[in-house]
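Worked example

This section walks through a single chain of length 97. The input is the sequence exactly as stored; nothing has been trimmed or padded.
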Amino acid sequence: MPSATLAHLYQTGQWRQLRAAYLALNPLCEICIQSEMVTPATTVHHADGGHRGDVDRFWAGPFQALCSSCHSRHGKLEDHGRQAVRFDASGWPIRGA
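Given that input, the structure is written out below as tokens.
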């Protein structure tokens, strides 16, 4: 869940433009690609632990293009400081992902 102080930024035109531009450059889910699945990305996730209430990190990223399913599973775990386990196409865990 976004910080209450920054939640309003998701409703701004600036965020909508940033999100649209990022998805235009990264149209596929980055987690699904690691498993050799082709899934359209629908969400721009604040990667590497999120923005943590920092306005500069909110706008600068790093970002990750995710499908809604991966964002629900992986993104929310990462937002709460937990490591999400990812698997490659053969079913083996991806180290450091």
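What to look for: The beta strands are 43-46, 63-66.
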